[in-house]
Write a structure and sequence with these properties.
28% helix; Aminopeptidase; acyltransferase activity, transferring groups other than amino-acyl groups; alpha+beta; globular; 143 residues
Length: 143
């Protein structure tokens, strides 16, 4: 297993897009739209590679000076609960810290709250609906 930053429109990026669709949108009968993908060239893309396969992915979108949003985290179903998601998140936190960011926020599905809380993310505000599911905004300050 290795964690890499992947380039926009690379073969790994295309594999990550497929994984994001298969895990996050397909089960809901939704597709990633052109509007949702607009601007991804300026975002940071990370992947967990197992041999030559993308088994987990995460997108980091710089929001403002010091703040980044983590979005579209997906782990292949047969790799969930293996620690790969945790390792990916920790790796991404370190990489964005190195790039000068001091705060992360994300919109977590309600079913994923315990995962993020265990890693130091704090819920803020009220829950809301996004892509037909209940979500909670969460934040983490980097030290």
């Amino acid at each position: 297993m290795k964690i890499i930053e992947i380039e926009w429109c690379s073969p790994e990026y295309q594999s990550a897009l497929e994984l994001r669709h298969d895990v996050l949108r397909g089960p809901l009968g939704l597709k990633l739209t052109a509007e949702e993908l607009d601007g991804e060239h300026a975002q940071l893309h990370f992947a967990v590679m197992d041999k030559d396969e993308v088994v987990a992915t995460l997108v980091a979108r710089p929001e403002s000076s010091g703040v980044v949003q983590f979005r579209q985290m997906a782990v292949r179903p047969d790799q969930q609960r293996s620690g790969k998601g945790t390792e990916l998140l920790k790796h991404c936190e370190e990489k964005i810290r190195e790039k000068g960011f001091s705060e992360i926020h994300l919109n977590a599905r309600q079913t994923c709250l315990p995962f993020y809380e265990k890693l130091g993310y704090q819920p803020i505000g009220d829950e809301f609906e996004e892509v037909t599911l209940k979500h909670q905004k969460m934040v983490k300050k980097l030290s």
